[in-house]
Amino acid sequence: MSGQTLIEKIIRAHVVEGDCVPGKEVKIRIDQTLCQDATGTMAFLELEAMGVDRVKTELSVQYIDHNTSQFGPENPNDHLYLQSVCAAKGVLYSRPGNGICHQVHLERYGVPGKTLLGSDSHTPTGGGIGMVAMGAGGLDVALAMAGKPFKLSFPRVIGIRLSGALPAWVAAKDVILQVLAILGSKGNVGTAVEYFGPGVKSLSVPERATITNMGAELGVTTSVFPSDENTRAFLVAEGRGDAWQSLTADADAVYDRVIELDLSQLVPMAACPSNPGNVRPVSEIAGLPVSQVLIGSCTNSSLKDLRMAAAVLKGRQVSPAVSLGIAPGSRQVMQMMSLDGSLGDLIGAGCRILESACGPCIGQGFSPASGTISVRTFNRNFLNRTGTKNDQCYLVSPETAVATALTGKLTDPRSLGIAYPSWAMPGQFLVDDSMVLQPAPAGDAVEIVRKETIGEPPCCSPLPDCVEGEVLLRVGDKITTDHIMPAGTYLKYRSNIPRYAQYVFECFNEEGKASFAERAGKVRDAGRIGVVVAGESFGQGSSREHAAICPMHLGVRVVLAISVERILAANLVNFGILPLLFKDASLLETISAGDSFCIENLHAQLKPGADVQARLRRGDGSEQQLSLTHALSAEDIALVLAGGRLAAN
Ligand code: F3S
Question: Signal sequence span per UniProt (predicted)?
Answer without folding.
Answer: none
